[in-house]
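All the exercises in this workshop are built on plain-text protein records. The record below serves as our worked example for the rest of this section.
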Amino acid sequence: MQALDHARYLALREGAHVLEADGTGDKVLRLRDGSMLKLFRRKRLITSAAWYPYARRFADNCTTLAERAIPCPRVLQVYRIAEIARDAVHYEPLPGKTLRQLLDDADSNDDLRRQLGAFIAQLHDKGVYFRSAHLGNVVLTPEGQLGLIDIADMRTFRRPLRKAQRLRNFKHMLRYQEDRAWLLASDAFASAYLAAQQVCSSSELSAALS
């Protein structure tokens, strides 16, 4: 993690477009060159982020996903900005549109559901447990592949996920009403997932999605 002093941070931030912020300050910036700067703050004094910052986790997760041939952002640098008590990751975004941005394209909905079902099965088989799984964090790239963004809250394992982990991950995907309605509008998503894996049964997946 590289130290970034306040003057250099302000120079990097100059002309940036704020994509996300809260009462404590900026969270996600699109810089002048189109790259992204995502800032993290420690919300508690005693937290695992003290020895393993979220910016570092984001970068490490990008490396792991790339090694497993899963499209994701490309990290340029990880910073510690002491003057504003923030850690930051500077990265090139994954090009494309999120699935949430594509929900209104009715002609392709079932195709997208099937593609997503097979993609989630691929993630699970490759040991990826994405706790922030929702349609706003899955991107359809210009090449027609699905990839992941906003991946600080992710765990990876050397082996495929166990059945309990898979079913719990589906619970995460159903937290948002809009996502839930789209995923369950047909059986395309569940059928594609079941066809691409051999761990969960149809009844178990149906129970998890209910």
Remarks:
- DSSP finds seven helices and eleven strands in the chain.
- The chain has a mean pLDDT of 90.
- The longest strand covers residues 74-81.
